[in-house]
Write a structure and sequence with these properties.
By secondary structure, the chain is mainly α. Helices cover 44% and strands 7% of the residues. Helix 3 packs across helix 4.
Length: 218
């Protein structure tokens, strides 16, 4: 017997990207507060639609598959390694309060970071993916912590780039704190900054190389 609460009830995205997906109305209730009222009872017309114009239709389609089968389809390109989709899927999990989905997304991200190409390269979430996660999660989000920890362990100087707008400011603040906490100076690093311990910070002065440093006269 057909479930009376099954409708083609989700209209995802907007414009040319808009599409309709069928989903149990009981499941739609969990999406977010703006649509819970319209999907709460079986009194709404059978052909009624719950519009989600701000959601990515492809990502929501993956969520629907997860909702019924608890599997995240592998959808990635060689360039992106699936991170953009995983980031958006995590954010959607935040909206629908699906912690189990979010846990599996983080598992998938970690698994992807461990995967190597034929030439031994590994790929990590881009600055845009980090901005996506930071822009839609709370300060105590496990996903935020994972993004920070991946940079603490794996980041290289070129990741910083030349444009500060590439980074979410809260991420940079969290990363700075984490790097200070995790900092372990090598002997080479200590030697390079020995002048701080000696009290003669000559390299910070603006005098010429041939001039006698005034700090050495003190």
């Amino acid at each position: 017997m057909a479930d009376p609460l099954i409708d083609p009830c989700c209209k995802i995205g907007g414009g040319i990207d808009e599409r309709s997906l069928s989903m149990r109305a009981s499941s739609v209730r969990t999406l977010h507060s703006s649509m819970q009222h319209s999907a709460r009872t079986g009194k709404k017309p059978r052909n009624a639609l719950v519009a989600l114009p701000d959601e990515d239709a492809d990502v929501f389609n993956i969520y629907v598959q997860w909702h019924y089968y608890e599997k995240i389809p592998c959808q990635k390109s060689e360039d992106e390694n699936g991170y953009p989709m995983l980031g958006k899927l995590y954010v959607l999990g935040e909206k629908v309060l699906d912690k189990k989905l979010q846990d599996r997304v983080l598992d998938a991200i970690v698994a992807t970071t461990r995967r190597k190409t034929e030439n031994g390269m590994r790929f990590f979430p881009s600055r845009q993916v980090i901005k996506e996660i930071y822009g839609s999660t709370t300060s105590n989000s496990p996903a935020r912590r994972l993004m920070v920890d991946l940079d603490v362990v794996h980041a290289l100087a070129p990741w910083v780039g030349a444009d500060e707008t590439e980074h979410h400011p809260d991420f940079m603040f969290d990363l700075t704190k984490a790097l200070i906490v995790e900092r372990a100076l090598t002997e080479e690093a200590k030697s390079a900054h020995a002048e701080l311990a000696s009290g003669i910070p000559c390299s910070y002065h603006q005098h010429g190389k041939d001039e006698v440093c005034s700090a050495k006269k003190l």
